[in-house]
Amino acid sequence: MFGKYLDRVREAAPLIHNITNYVTVNDVANILLACGASPIMADDPNEVEDITSICAGLNINIGTLNSHTVPSMLLAGRTAVRLGHPVLLDPVGAGASSYRTETAQRLLEEIGPDVIRGNISEIRTLTVNQAGASRGVDASLTDAVTEEGLREAVDFMRDQAERLHCVLVVTGAIDLVADGQTCYCIRNGRPEMGKITGTGCQLSGLMTAFLAANPEHKTEAAAAAVAVMGLAGEIGWDRMEPGDGNATYRNRIIDAVYHMKGTALDRGAKIEIYAPR
Amino acid sequence: MFGKYLDRVREAAPLIHNITNYVTVNDVANILLACGASPIMADDPNEVEDITSICAGLNINIGTLNSHTVPSMLLAGRTAVRLGHPVLLDPVGAGASSYRTETAQRLLEEIGPDVIRGNISEIRTLTVNQAGASRGVDASLTDAVTEEGLREAVDFMRDQAERLHCVLVVTGAIDLVADGQTCYCIRNGRPEMGKITGTGCQLSGLMTAFLAANPEHKTEAAAAAVAVMGLAGEIGWDRMEPGDGNATYRNRIIDAVYHMKGTALDRGAKIEIYAPR
Amino acid sequence: MFGKYLDRVREAAPLIHNITNYVTVNDVANILLACGASPIMADDPNEVEDITSICAGLNINIGTLNSHTVPSMLLAGRTAVRLGHPVLLDPVGAGASSYRTETAQRLLEEIGPDVIRGNISEIRTLTVNQAGASRGVDASLTDAVTEEGLREAVDFMRDQAERLHCVLVVTGAIDLVADGQTCYCIRNGRPEMGKITGTGCQLSGLMTAFLAANPEHKTEAAAAAVAVMGLAGEIGWDRMEPGDGNATYRNRIIDAVYHMKGTALDRGAKIEIYAPR
Prior knowledge:
The first copy, chain A, is of the alpha/beta class. Chain A has helices at about 5-10, 25-35, 50-55, 70-85, 100-110, 120-125, 150-165, 200-215, 220-240, 245-260, 260-270, and strands at about 15-20, 40, 55-60, 85-90, 115-120, 165-170, 175-180, 185, 270-275. The longest helix of chain A is centred in the C-terminal third of the chain and has 21 residues, at about 220-240. Chains in contact: A-B, A-C, B-C. The interface between A and B is medium-sized, with 33 and 30 residues.
């Protein structure tokens, strides 16, 4: 069912504009190429409007936030919204510094991204810890999405997605992708992926390509991207040899995306749907 | 015949100053080490003159152009020219934004690089799409250098190289390296190299080392670098195992450069010469 | 004996703040994850105090120094010192430009790092080539630490460590880790590690994690980190297959750190102690 969203990325070959951190940028570029998309990285205010205009989607990642690129993020974000291009916000490290939290909040309010993808701590920072978000406090995300707390987490995600008018994605041991109505729960992936820098950043890049190629089905496209990343983590792990560690695993995951077809995703995706309320 | 230029790089072990993008910079550094050269990356106006002075060549790449490094590019470029060090310009993304196009044009005019290396779109932007370049419009590069249009492309490249007083390099399915008189046509490489981010950036770094080590034979040195990169792409591909994708291929190409000797290049290079007019 | 310092890193899982260059930053992040620590990269003056406050150690690397991050380095460094967090300075390229030399000297004076790690050229620049360091000139480091000059180098390192009130680490064919009293001489590693960009940067990141997890034994923790990196270089080399080169070797070294246990370090470390004077 979700394989078609991957196939559509390979057919559309969208060009994706990334304003992202310098730590994991190379892996983001290679995973975009692996899924059939093309990356452009550009973060100077003098050119981000031009660049985002020729692209099909915009990926904003605040991983190495600095005062010279925040104006670029705002400019590019507004341009993309005006042109109807999907915008994804990855609020890396929101909560770790006031500057990140405030910038993430500002990007959220001034751009209105189509999708926000983060880990639980980041998503909590942008939801329950914000003024005006008190409604969500009771049904809050705890430290991790667990089987026991899943139903509660699903409701929390749908509530917050509705409040923020976006698709909200939280990744961890269990991944959740929600809009105001529907929530997908994805159980692909491996814990060892957390020992590689930037698997989250890579997923955000990948997901932007899925949104750009499937603009009519944003929630499903985001869920498909989550499943692709997780399934690639499983396939890559199966190819690990004795002595291989996190550096090699990084390559094997991107390699697995490179070879993945829609049919393989249909077979391997572990996606559960929480139907519209 | 071209193997000696590679051997000379390993003997001279030139130190290369790179002002380049943060996407592919690590691979540029590793491919420079793989060919026997040494990389220095430095892009602050406070130090680029010092750094370029202790180096043997300068590689300028506008892949993640920003307003803080453009003055560094100009300063370093003028210093390198004054000292007689070869300068290569890689106009990444010229044509994708006004800022890139104008900056590339400005670097071209104010520095006068020894070599310009880009893909067809970038080279077109700096040649036929510029005012004053109308002479080249008729004999223009089309979307790709093809066997059918090769003779025309060769003439175009020689004309533009002469007009720009540089060695002009366009890479794609067929690679061309031209000065005003001679054009080399290189048929090494594999299409899958386009699925790795930064193979062009890597080639520009590698080529700068070849220019620095072979300053009396710039056109031939540039052609040799193109053949090394393409042959490494072929050798790396032969080492690919089932399941390997673009991330692993990236490593295998650099690994192949690491082991390549001049004799292997002589055997594997597919270089055709279009003799001086 | 030194294995316990590695085991302690895995137990403590320290969060390490890195202000480092954009060339090798991804490898620094992955090697920190490989040893059981976690990386944060943040270099904007607006947030470095917040970030360093939530971390257990600070790694300052001037590899791609620029005028926007020098204030961040100073701010973060002073904050870390005030909080009692270990600070490591990696003076990449000190001596290559006046700007780097002066900035490294300034960071040294205004922060007072716990550890300085560099190659011989960099350490010389910060010691014998500085005014006020004339006492060390006679017993200077020559171009490399050799078996013949080892005793002299050991004395030099201890003198300079005492003068600078820090642990001083010089890496090369033979590695030395000294405080004012004791000097450890480590003979792990392979010369081919010099053909990979950033093995020094990686070691600095790794070492900061060792300092953060073993704050009562800084000299020994630094020596243990040097041995881990060198031993990983040996283990990684043993896993090289025909055709593998520097790109693959890079991954294999990080992979080896990922799997290394304290017991393996105890078996493989080649550490000689020059007892307190």
